[in-house]
Amino acid sequence: MAAYRRRLGPDSTTPDDPAAREVDAEIEAHLAMRTDELVAQGWSEDEARAEAVRRFGGGTSGRRALVAAARRTRRRRSVRGSWAALRSDVGLALRHARRAPGFSVLAVLIFAAGVGLTTSMFTVADHVLLRPLPYPGADRLVALWSVGEEGGAFPWVSMSNWVDWKERTPGFEATALYRGERLPVATDAEAFHAPVARVGGPFFATLRTPFVRGRPFSEEEAQSEAPVAVVSEGFWTRVLGAPASLNDVRVEVDGVSRAVVGVVPDRQSFPAGTDLWLPERYRAGSGALRNNINYEAVARLGDDASPEQVGAQLDGVARDIRTSDPEALYSWGVSVRPLRDVVTGGARSYLVLLAVSVGFLLIVACANLAGLSLARARRRQRETAVHLALGAGRGRIVRRVVTEHLLLALAGGSLGVAVAWLTTDVLLTRLAAVVPRAHEVGFDLRVAAFGIAAAAGAGILAGIVPALRGSRGDLSTVLSGARGDVRGGRGLPGAVMVGTEVALAVALLVAGGLLFRSLQAVVSTDLGFDAERVMAADMTLAGDRYADDEARAAFWSAVGAAAAARPGVETVATANPMPMRDGGRGFIDLPDREGEDIGAGYYVVGERYFDVLDVPLLEGRSFEPSDAAGTERVAVINRSMARRFWPGGDALGRRVRARSMEQWVFGTPTAPWITVVGVVEDTRQYGFESDPDADMFVLDRQVPYYTRSMSLMVEGRVGAELSPDFLRSVVREVDPSVAVQVTTLQAGLEGLTEERRLVLSGLGLFGGASVLLVCLGIYGLMSFAAGERTREMAVRVALGAERGQLVGLMLVGALKVVLAGAAAGLVGAWLFTRLLESFLVDVRPADPTTYALAVVLLTGVALAAALVPSLRAARRDPLEALRAEA
Asked: Looking at the chain, which terminus has fewer C-beta neighbours within 10 angstroms, N or C?
């Protein structure tokens, strides 16, 4: 054969190639047979061998063809064998499933719950955290944040600073300015408020926003403040009726009739949820204009520019601004941040937390089924031993058990994915107000593939341990009928898995408990005002009708009087802004500290504002009817402002000037002086988690400029008599053309805790499901233990043991498993709660009360689950038990 191989020349096959070895063996057999024939005819051995090789011929190509054919044959055999083995394993798994329908249904439901929740969580996390923003070249989009003197970055920028950034930063391909607000929109049929973005610069070009219809407004249109608008696809359909053409389509926004020039797809709307985009003229400025930080900025980096390079360029521009204009308070640098991270915001932390939690739940489900399967594997030892005795390899046994779990997992996972798909809309309704990019979330093939992959992984994870354990064992012991002796729980199949379930459940319960206690601490915070009986109607007086101060004052007087005359109304006032709304802060001057950068809250309110909110008056007086327009300017301040600027307790009669809020309003070189006439208790203007700050309140009729947009606040019995329809009807009596948006202060407060409630509800759901799975695991474990210890229990009863002692013995075994798992769970909970620190208020991550309650709760529930099989085992007649064991 060696001579033949040498004659064929170099061989491409490897020595380990079985197909080549098979071909070579056949060739060698053929040559040996031909050599023997020639030797019988009188040829010498060497001559016969050489002649046989010569006659065989074939060359290199012939042998390679034979090897290739052998390989194809082996592959066909391998595929047929694997397919036959798979069919056999699947068939056997289906027969086992039919024989144990209870376990099969339970397994499918557990997999469905675990995979369904995991898939739903992935649906959100994938669209919000993993996918890029829905714009071409989204990785080049960045947000530009201002940096203050102390180095802190914040998203608000001034128009004047941005103009310098735009003109002096070569790393930009494009940049734009925007600010969101709610403005009145009027159609022939109705008037309402809509989310609007005023944008300056090449906004749509920066984002490369695609258009369903029409075009963006040009930068020239923006600079000339042309009456044009771009609308969202939803607004185009819902409000404008989706006309076939853009010609002559107009919409009235904030009293101005505008031509609609383009329609943006809802998925590409930015900021999210915006219905209309209006052009905003931008211009350079200096001094105080640089400190009016009312906008946000977005930019697209050039192809060769990195965020670090652009950040360095912008820092240089900021230094130049500060050098040339020392009054520029917010020009100590510029922070360049990926736009996706800014859009995602704080959602990343709680979505990661929920994703980890649902991962824990899936592991709990897998551990639960693995534990139950280990118990079933003990009962199927004889069947496994027979298969091994008949020649089945341990690999085949492992594959069979894993296949069984994989089928159950895929069935359950398919059900879970289907449920996740059907509940996507419900999920979006729950998330829309809390999760950024929620409008992009949807069920697609990528999500479905993840769900199926998660199901397959869960099936393998749940089946691998029982498969490996079930394939081991002494055949002679199993086939001889000997039974293992289980004492207390030591060596009990599934105990480790149940302990793992307990550990993860403890971690989830501790996390949920900490968040619950934090939420309680947050909502119990004293706000300083009463929000339960207050309803508010937000209104903006647009158009020429309300262009002068007297017309606006007449409207607010009329609508306030109409509301006060209705049954159930106790007090009426106005505010701009009202509590829990953005705005209302600026720089002030004091007589001895003019020009310093002193900040304070600035709120324009009605005469009975403090009565509506039940804010106590501490000193002096509140506003009175004599405080009319044109009379001496007066203000009421809060306790924090009085203590901060007049710690001696002599705030009454002091003067203050609202520099940044009033200087340009009155068109004078300086803002007017205002006399402090009263001091009220502190209020948390921005909700539970804000701290009281220095705040001043001025009377609306003395600052008529700010009466254009205000909230009508009504105190009374919120319900049937005081309802949104009631407030709308009051406004319609005065002017039907005014758009009204009605809410309650209580709803606003609940909105502030919506994020916390979302995380808490998620952890509560996952924690509750994990506790249920632990109960199932403990129940299955103790049921198996009762069956394994039948003989032991019968002997104990025969020797005089009381049934209560037997129950206690069983429960002690369960308690050992639970406490061991709980001990591990406490360590895991301490590590897991590191993710919670940003959500915790007035409670430590290592709070001993919460940890203890979680362990006590889980231990009690687990023992209750173990009690049923323990009582059943203790009640069994010992004689019948011994006969059954014989």
From this structure: C
Structure tokens at 69: 């054919």
Q: Which residues contact 161 (CB under 8 A, 6 or more apart)?
A: 146, 290, 318, 321, 328, 330, 331
Lookup: tokens for 237: 């359909």
Of 9-18, 222-231, 357-366, 412-421, which range is least confident? 9-18
DSSP state of 602: E
Give the separation between CA 822 and CA 506, rounded to whole angstroms.
Answer: 6
Handedness of CA 89, 95, 98, 103 (dihedral sign): negative
The DSSP bridge pattern shows strands 276-279 and 191-200 to be: parallel
Q: Which letter does DSSP use for residue 501 in this model? A: H
Token duo for residue 501: 């379930």
State the Cα angle at 775 between 769 and 779, rounded to 5°.
150
> Are 171 and 310 in contact, with CB atoms under 8 Å apart?
yes
Query: Can you name the residues that pair with 575 across neighbouring β-strands?
Result: 605, 711
3-state helix, strand, coil in the chain (%, to 5): 55, 15, 30
Name the residue among 531, 553, 492 with its Cα closest to residue 710. Answer: 553
Q: Give one DSSP letter per residue of 538-568, joined into a string.
A: EEE--SGGG-SHHHHHHHHHHHHHHHHTSTT
Dig out the tokens for 358 from the structure. Answer: 């649902």
CA dist 495 and 492 (Å) reads 6
How far is C-alpha 808 from the geometric centre of its chain's CA atoms?
45
- What is the Cα–Cα distance from 88 to 119, expressed in whole angstroms? 31
> N- to C-terminal Cα distance for the chain?
66
Say which amino acid occupies 117. Answer: L
Burial tier of 57 (Cβ tally within 10 Å: 0-12, 13-18, 19+):
exposed
Please report which helix (H) or strand (E) contains residue 523, including its range: helix 495-523
Q: 844, 829 in Cβ contact below 8 A?
A: no
Q: Cα(205)–Cα(299) distance, rounded to whole angstroms?
A: 10
Residues 6+ apart with CB under 8 A from 95: none
Closest CA to 331 of 153, 586, 166: 153
Tens-digit pLDDT profile for residues 734-777 = 888 888 888 888 888 888 788 888 888 888 888 888 888 888 77
- Segment 74-85 mean pLDDT: 60
Instruction: Specify the pTM.
Output: 0.77
- Between β-strands 296-301 and 191-200, what pairing exists: parallel, antiparallel or unpaired? unpaired
